Amino acid sequence: MVDNRTWADKIRALKEQKNAVILAHYYTRPEVQQVADFVGDSLALSQQAADTDADIIQFAGVHFMAETAKVLSPDKKVLIPDPEAGCSLADSCDAEAFRRFLEAHPDHIVVTYVNTSVEVKAMTDICCTSSNAVKVIRSLPADRKIIFAPDRNLGDYIKRVTGRNDIVLWDGACHVHENFSLEKLLALKKEHPGAKVLAHPECKKPVLMAADFVGSTAAIIDFVGTDGGREYLIATESGILFELREKYPDVNFIPVPPIDSTCGCNDCQYMKLVTLEKICRALETETPEVVIDEEIRRRAERSIRNMLALK
Ligand code: 13P
Ligand code: SF4
């Protein structure tokens, strides 16, 4: 049995030999984050993918993230360690059904969260991530009608924050973020009265209403740095705990438990499919590679570039 350190050594050697860069999301396993060249949230990862001068991008994350990297860097080889690493939120927005939805709502500006397939992005005017969703909506003319897809919880949150009640929402969600238990959260708040609740906007409204801060993974990490508290209740995927504990070793982070689970915290099983062994094999064989039809890629690129242009 090969241990993590041996896999990591092999990965570092292959990276150097092949001029490859590893981009990892905060939800991946700790040992994956440790071997990455860059760890970030969806927005920062797409910015890195657009800027890198590596020949190979090894994307340690889920499929839509690797696709986004390929859309932005078509001349680079983009590898995904496990193509089964999907996303329930992206899957909740089927491209054909979305096309019919758009036909039923003509004359709307189409905003989609990056957690979508490349086909959905190709039908989008401007993408957003959880970091910049509010900013993207505020950048749009006040007299234009808007469609927001696919996350109904993030969509509902941005409607509340921006006051734009005319946004039409697609009815999709992330199974991980919808599974946080409000009852268990309220019980934990009683046990830890000094702890602030930090939640990702993909959580359901009652959880967001109980939160002191709502933000993307990167925003949650930054919030702790500026807030300077000693204890926090965290309502997002469990992978973020690694970076939080590395960065703030003296702070107590308590995961908000899910409604039903055996592990006491919320894991995205897709993110956890990415292992050191799979990264190593992908770098060795330079497969599986993300391949996208050029016409679809070009149309999807416009929607992502429109987002990245919003500084
Ligand atoms: P971030 O935008 O915070 O990276 O979130 C991505 C994601 O998949 C949330 O479930
Ligand atoms: Fe998709 Fe949810 Fe996993 Fe994020 S946590 S990658 S939205 S399934």
UniProtKB/TrEMBL annotation:
Gene3D superfamilies: NadA-like. It catalyses: iminosuccinate + dihydroxyacetone phosphate = quinolinate + phosphate + 2 H2O + H(+). Signal peptide: none annotated. It is an enzyme of class 2 (transferase). It comes from the Bacteria. It is found in: Cytoplasm. Belongs to the quinolinate synthase family. Type 2 subfamily. This is Quinolinate synthase. It comes from Candidatus Tidjanibacter faecipullorum. The lineage of its organism: Bacteria, Pseudomonadati, Bacteroidota, Bacteroidia, Bacteroidales.
